[in-house]
Design goal:
Length: 735
Amino acid sequence: MKLQSKILYLVLGVVGGVQVLATAISATHSWTQLTREEFRFHEILLSNNQRSFGLYVWNFDTKGAVAGIDGLFKSPSVRRVQILDGSGKLFSGSTLISPQSEQDFKERTEMTGEVIASEDLLQTLQTHRKKSEDSGEVPAILESATSETSIVRVVSPVIYSSGGADKVIGHVVLDFSTELVRARIRQMILSQLAIGLLMTGALVGIIFFAIRKSVVTPVQKLMSASQEIAQGNFSREVISESDDEIGTLAENFNDMRLRVKEFTENLQEMVDKRTQEVLTGKQKIQQILVHIEQGILTFDKDLRIEDEFSSFLPRFFSVETKAIPGQQVTEFIFKKSLIGSDQYGLLVATLGSFMGENVLSFEVNEENLPKELQLKLDGKDRIVGLDWTPIVDSNDQVQRCLLSIRDMTERKILEEKIRLTQENNLRIFTHISEILSVDREWAVRALKSANQTLQDIFPLIQNKSGDPHAIFRELHTMKGTFRTLQLKGALDATHTAETAIAQWRAKSMISGTELALPIKELQKKITEYNETVAQVFALNSEKPSFLQSIDPPLRSFINTLKGAGCQYDGLVIQDSVGSWRPEMIDVLNDILVHAFSNSADHGFVIPKQRGLTVSPAKLVLKLSRQGNRFEVEFSDNGAGIDAQLVQKKAAALGIPFAPERLAEILLTDGFSTAEKVTQSSGRGVGLKAIRSIANDRKGNLSLYQRPEGGLTIKVELSLNFSGEIDHSNHQLRAA
């Protein structure tokens, strides 16, 4: 369709639409106005006959009513008149619907007392009548709805005056037709449309010729000029006589013509220049691909490697250059990697999910692409870093993907060396800090003794040929020493090993290999401590006094009390030994580690946790030597032995109880009154470990329940450290 035809149709549509809209608005307004005038006419007509009809109804004058109805029918639009009494029953009426209907209607009028009013009309009549009775005023004439769209109903009250007051005794219902109004409206619309058609034709003609001259003709000239430019003729100038937008467009068109002419004349030179730039850029890229120490390649939507890639790629993967193009990138790289089949499947699915799709799909799935990969090349493990870059078209669709492969093997090795060095430095620093806070001589001897003990018991554990109870006590003593020395790394490792031996002791199904693993870790940890000592500390040969051996377990005792909210009131030491041998100090260390720990937990901390009142802790340590016998007596003022709690625990474990068997029960392997296992108590080992120390040195252990409160632990042993082990020497005595 040509431009002038489009303009003609557009003008016709707009002007015609405006004319039709104006006609519709006028017709609607006229309809409303004429209908209201017709209603007002009949309203006045009924208002003038209200009282006449009232007399007819009051006097039952049907003839007068008929005469009044005939007077109403003088209006040409009246179709039906009904006079209703106060109850809504028909008094008289007439209709012009049809002869048959009129006859039926007259027959109904003779049926006195028949209610012919509808429910809605009856409601209206009752409202009129009630308003008249309540206020004494005559209701207004109103319009009522009917079931016929062309009929308008007017309802007027019938009034009778009695004693100076007006009463509503019935109603006149008049139905008039709007057909005459419709006919007048139709005639008016036809007249307006005829006039509008003539005006529209004239207006369209004027507008069309004006637009043709000012718009269509200049545009046609521009079209002709553009066709000549398309055919290669740039010499014709476009001339416009107007100074409006079309004139400006013509000037811009001429400028464009001149620019296109200049561009066409210089096009070959530009093409040659651009070609040279592309070749230069390609050569630079090729130089980069040759010399860069990275594997750079691109692959298409079928995941096949394209022809251009870096020279590093065939060297790194030890393949011929011509063998790379066309290979599946997943087969070429990732089949040589150590990723599992599930990871490989996820990679293939991820690549397929964004190739050929919007770049947003790549961004969503990028986290599933591996950023680091371990390869097996020529029998050697290599670690490479991967960088993925989508190559998109003008519609942001991923057409290809660039993959950069960086050899990170040496870097990872260096990072691992740095990490191990940092860990080793941190471990040494931690060991130094721990050893500096205690007696170094004691720490060195404790580590040396622990290392020898582990060497002795390791084959027994690995073959499960030793006594698990004896081994457990050895580890528990070792753990107590490390806890006192606050060597946390050794303490944690010993606790783990002790837990494994506890399973063996409980006769659980655990193999010797499983038992040996935590022992090896403990040996490793102790070796690290020994290496730190050898590298950092230059120890003198001065022998420690027994007071130095008391300090660490005492400090641990005090810290335990403070942590539980208990108070410490001092330690009294009575030393009658005189000359101390190093072996005696070592034995004293082992005994005091368990004695202090047992006293803190069972004498003060656990009773306080159970809600009992505990006094500030007072300790007495008596050390004596009689001949070849060495005695250690440790006393506290704690809660002592809770016989009822021992009885309860014994019953739970199925151990027979008797007051005289308290010591025997307390020294039963695995028996403890603690509620839960901690690093310091709960395994039922502390007192048993002291008894084992005494028995191993041909001695015995005695427990004294003090009447004033508290417990005394007395250990007697031989100084020659030889003899048979005796497990029967334990007793409970009253002080």
